[in-house]
Amino acid sequence: MCAHPDPPEPFRTPELFDECRMVQARGELDPTTVAPLVQALEGARTGRGRVFLIVDFREVTFADGSILGPLCEAWEDCRARQGWVRVVHSSLGIDLVLLGGGMLGRFPAYATAQDAWRGTPATAG
Prior knowledge:
The protein is of the alpha/beta class. It contains 4 helices and 5 strands. Strands 1-2-3-4-5 form a 5-stranded mixed β-sheet.
């Protein structure tokens, strides 16, 4: 089994609806594979005005601390523009990475993109 499979397109093009943009990631996110996520997050924040950014990690199979820097950069940029960043996932592993980085309070889990848009975090269960 390959430790880092190369999916054909690890990150989909950011989607735009209203003032909300969405970046979807899949596969493994570590120092050797995080560059496309960084580029997608930067691309989703191009232009001016408010940005509400939903980062969908539901198809991510592994993540480490390499996601923290790009998420925090996006959060700081969006917040400075009167927007926000919200993360969609149901992964205990991602929760642990965020907790270890002191970012779980900043990035609570949302079950779906619709829940993230509405500001309804996932319930612990």
